[in-house]
Amino acid sequence: MKKMIENAKRVVIVTHVNADPDALSSACALHKLVNSINRNAFVEILVPEGIGLECKRIYEFCQGMDIPINVIKKYHQLESREPCDTCIIVDTASWEQLRIIKDYVIRCDNIIVIDHHQYRDIQASDKNKRILFFGDEQHYSSTAEIVFEIIVNHDQRLDNLNELATILLAGVLWDTKRFQRVARNTFHAVAKMMDLGADYEEAMKLTAVEKPPSNRIARIKCVLRHRGFKIRIKGSEVFVAISNVGAYESDCASSLISIGYDISFVLTEDEDLKAVRVVYRGKDEVVNALDIDIYSNILKKLVEVYGGGGGGHKVAGGAILRTFNVKHVIENLIKILNSVSEIGVLEFVEERS
Ligand SMILES: [Mn+2]
Q1: From the CA of 224, how far away is ligand 1's center (Å)?
Q2: Which position among 82, 236, 278, 338 has the lowest Cβ density within 10 Å, counted as fewest Cβ atoms?
C-alpha cells in the first residue's frame, strides 16, 4: 500500500453513499496518511450523494484539520476531474454503494479496499488492475480500527495523532453502537487510541445526532405500512417485517426490530437510480442462533432475480435491485421466506383501530 501511494500522482479516497461516521473518519485519517507518505500527490476525498446527519460534526472536525471533503451529487462534478491513478475505497462492501462515482473509481489503476464487512462483491475483477484488501469482520468491528492499525504501523508518526485517534474512536463508537458489538481487536484498538491521546468524551459528542422531523414521519409511515410474518427455521419461530418508505430506510428497519421483530426488510424506490433499494436488520441474538444468514440465504436471491449488488453483515446490510417494481420485489421476498420456512409464511392480520 505504501509503495502504491509513494508512486501515485492523484489519489482519491472514496466512501460509500451517505457516508457514516466510520466511513468519514476513516477517509479523513487516510487523507493525512497519504499526505505524509507522498507530499507531491494530489489527494481528495469523494463522498457519493451526501453525508449522513450523524456525520455533521466529524465533517466540521475534518475541515478544521484542513482535510477537504467533496460531496459528489452530479456527474458533471466528475467530468471536470482528471482521472486518478490510485483509489482507496473505505467502509464499502459493494460497487453499487459507490453510486455515481463507481465508474470513476473502476478506472483507477491501483485500488486499495479497506473494509470490515463480511459479505462483499468488490473483487479484483480486472486482472490488469492492482487491488489490495485490508480488513475482515472477525478482527475489526469498524473500518476506523483497520485505518488506525495502518496508521500506527506506519513508520512515521503523523501530526495531530490525538485528533485523528479521536475521530477514529468516534467511528468505532458509531459502528459498534457504543460497544454493543465488538470484534477481536476492538478493545485493543480502542485502548491504543486512548494511549495516543484520543478524547473519549469528544468522540461521543462527535456522533451525537439530532434527527429532523422528516425522520420521525418516515419511521411512523414505516410502522403503519409494514406487514408482519411468522416463519419457522429449525423449530424456532422467527418474526419478519417488510415495509417501504421514501427515505431513512435504515432507521425504519431498526424501528421494526425495536418493536419486536427478529428480521426486518425495508424497500425504497430510488427515482434517480431507477432501482429498488432494500435494507435489512436483524436482532443479534436471534440471527446468530439461526442456521441461515439473511444476506446469503434471502437478499442474495433477490439480487440473482433482478441483478444489482449488495453487501452487509449478519445483522445489517442491503442491496440495490435493478427493478422499479416494489410490489414485485415484496412478492418475491415472501416467496423466498416461504422457501426457507418449515411452516411456510404466516401473515399477522389485525383490524385497524
Ligand atoms: Mn463501517
Answers
A1: 30
A2: 82
